[in-house]
Specification:
Elements: H1 13-22, E1 26-30, H2 34-42, E2 47-50, H3 54-57, H4 69-85, E3 91-95, H5 105-117, E4 123-125, H6 133-141, E5 146-151, H7 157-160, H8 170-186, E6 190-194, H9 198-207, E7 212-215, E8 223-226, H10 228-231, H11 249-265
Parallel strand pairs: 1-2, 1-8, 2-3, 3-4, 4-5, 5-6, 6-7, 7-8
Length: 304
């Protein structure tokens, strides 16, 4: 008899649209493996993003640019399994990484379909505005929902000159608004607004029928997204202005591991209660007469 929880109906793109219309805020967070997926889903998030931010949060790169499509598929599949084991309702989105959609429409469609078919995501997210209208339209026509992403787009970090707030002057703000409208017209079901002025995010949200998900875009959007490692405080050296640490797990993890190391060095771990005993086991080492000969007997017990 299965011990798996009964499956629940997953949150769809239509449910997210309904949430916007009802004024019900959307909570979105990243996850990169099955354990994290299970935990965030149990905590009640609406949307889980397998972000290419894993390049920085997991792989140790200084940007998202080295992340490959195969790596996104690998991590997405882990997250999918974690959500399934938790019988989670959370909507699952996977990032299309740098180089998987910029070169052409056909490449973009193939990449999106691969991320859905092999990674188990329900939708893909890609960065860029009006320039990607046709790419988005074709991916959607192929049956894959697309979430847009404008403002600070990490895959364009070199073009932008760093991780800086976007849309601060009138001309650039107008371009972001134009891009947002273009994404909606192309068929995006939602759009991430990253690191743009609060005032601009409010205007964009009011003018779009699709949900807006903010990160560093203030409170006047339809939902929020944060990187899991940031909100958990796993890296105390990285604290962007828009991040709130809801826990300080970095020091907690260091403290726990240091305690473990201390007990191993002091031989206080493992204690007797952490071991196994059997009265029927007899340990009979055979005598070894020649160092070069194989022993004729051995120690009877469990292998390691």
């Amino acid at each position: 008899m299965s011990t798996q929880p009964a499956p629940k109906k997953r949150i769809t793109i239509h449910e997210l649209r309904r949430m916007k219309e009802a004024g019900d805020p959307i909570a979105m967070v990243t996850a990169y493996d099955a354990t994290a997926a299970r935990l965030v889903a149990t905590a009640g998030v609406d949307v889980v993003l397998v972000g290419d931010s894993l390049g920085m949060a997991v792989q140790g790169h200084d940007s998202t640019l080295p992340v490959t499509l195969d790596q996104m598929v690998y991590h997405s599949a882990m997250v999918r399994r974690g959500l399934d084991r938790a019988a989670a309702r959370a909507h699952l989105v996977g990032d299309l990484p740098f180089g998987s959609y910029q070169a052409g429409v056909d490449d973009a469609v193939r990449a999106a379909m691969k991320l859905v078919a092999e990674g188990g995501v329900q939708a893909v997210k890609l960065e860029g505005g009006a320039d990607y209208h046709e790419v988005i339209r074709r991916i959607v026509r192929a049956g894959v929902p697309v979430m847009g992403h404008i403002g600070l787009t990490p895959q364009s970090v070199h073009k932008m000159g760093g991780y800086v707030v976007q849309g601060k002057d009138s001309e650039k703000a107008q371009q972001i608004l134009k891009d947002a409208r273009a994404l909606a017209a192309a068929g995006c079901y939602a759009v991430v607004l990253e690191c743009i002025p609060v005032e601009l995010a409010r205007i964009v949200t009011s003018q779009l029928a699709i949900p807006t998900i903010g990160i560093g875009a203030g409170p006047h959007v339809d939902g929020q997204v944060l990187v899991l490692n940031d909100l958990l405080g796993l890296d105390t050296s990285f604290t962007p202005k828009f991040v709130k640490r809801f826990a300080e797990l970095g020091p907690a993890v260091e403290g726990a591991v240091a305690a473990y190391v201390g007990e191993v060095k002091a031989r206080t771990f493992p204690a007797d209660e952490h071991g196994f005993h059997s009265a029927s086991v007899r340990l009979v080492p055979a005598p070894i007469e020649d160092d070069h000969e194989e022993p004729q007997g051995g120690v009877m017990g469990a292998p390691i």
